[in-house]
From TrEMBL:
Topological category with respect to the lipid bilayer: Multi-pass membrane protein
Biological source species: Bariatricus massiliensis
Record SUPFAM superfamilies: Multidrug resistance efflux transporter EmrE
The protein's name: DMT family transporter
Record bears the keyword Membrane: yes
Keyword rRNA-binding annotated: no
Localization, UniProt: Cell membrane
EamA domain span: 7-140, 151-288
Stored Pfam families: EamA
């Protein structure tokens, strides 16, 4: 594995480690904040931080690229999170967790359709997908029964598809050759702009006085700087280096990290079913990422 590829895998892993723990901060903030308020504040903070870290204006080489940035902001920043939040109000969190994890499969399909330079999907990708989905089901439905809620489940499925669109758009953006922080910041800007009309339809209150509570301030900083500014940059970097498909399979790890952090921080018990699901999910990830060395060598020789 090349050094650059290793950096890509490390960036993807770091991203998922943080994203898998955001539920704790979100849970704390939901006591006094609406989901759309958390979403708006975290991305505004993330946008400001990216400006401070890399205050260089992005000058596009081709004006047609602006449309790709707009679509990326609409999909990855605005629509995905809004759909996921609405889905959570209509169906069980476990349903949403499993359905959202289908995103890598959608990403693989869209990548094959629109990004011709990506590798052809091998049987191990589909076998890994199946193993990971079984593992995620064991984790998510541990101790509970499956309840179908058509509206919420469909919204979660659309959210997974929208994230797949974002992954493909990010891959396209990475081919332009711009700095990752600049492209992430521009995507944030469009995401926030598209989010503004949605604020009118949800219970949004500016009420900055709530941040006088250090607990709320600390958690929104974690979501804004860590989960948004840092992680979208590292995720986009991973997509640039590894490709949309290889990076997206790391999404399988989110339920695993969630259950581990629940045990460590919230002292929730890990059952045998959850442990089995964790092992299956990890196996699915490694199987999906597996690439025989002789295949690479054979291609290099030809």
């Amino acid at each position: 594995m090349g050094q650059n590829n290793m950096k890509g895998h490390m960036a993807a892993l770091l991203t998922i480690l943080v994203w898998g723990t955001t539920f704790i901060s979100t849970k704390v903030l939901l006591v006094s904040f609406q989901p759309v308020e958390i979403l708006f504040f975290r991305f505004i903070m993330g946008f400001v931080v990216l400006i401070l870290v890399y205050p260089h204006r992005l000058k596009l080489k081709d004006k047609r690229q602006e449309g790709i940035f707009m679509l990326a902001g609409l999909c990855g920043i605005c629509m995905y999170y809004l759909l996921e939040n609405i889905a959570l109000t209509c169906t069980l969190a476990s349903n949403v967790g499993v359905i959202i994890s289908v995103a890598p499969f959608f990403t693989a399909i869209l990548t094959r359709l629109f990004m011709k330079e990506e590798e052809k999907l091998k049987a191990n990708f589909f076998a890994g997908f199946a193993a990971a989905m079984i593992g995620i089901c064991l984790i998510s439905f541990n101790g509970s029964r499956l309840e179908l809620n058509p509206l919420g489940d469909i919204l979660a499925l659309v959210a997974a598809f929208v994230w797949a669109c974002y992954s493909v758009l990010t891959r396209k953006i990475s081919s332009y050759g711009y700095h990752t922080i600049q492209t992430t910041r521009r995507t944030f800007a469009y995401g926030i702009l598209f989010m503004l009309p949605a604020l009118l339809f949800f219970e949004f209150h500016l009420d900055l006085g709530r941040f006088a509570n250090p607990l709320y301030t600390g958690n929104i900083i974690f979501l804004g700087i860590g989960a948004s500014a840092l992680c979208f940059v590292t995720w986009n970097f991973a997509v640039k280096v590894l490709g949309a498909v290889k990076t997206s399979v790391y999404i399988y790890l989110v339920p695993v990290i969630t259950i581990v952090t629940s045990a460590l921080i919230l002292h929730e018990k890990i059952t045998a079913m959850a442990a089995a699901g964790t092992i299956l999910t990890m196996a699915g990830l490694f199987l999906s990422e597996y690439r025989p060395k002789n295949t690479k060598d054979f291609k290099a020789d030809n």
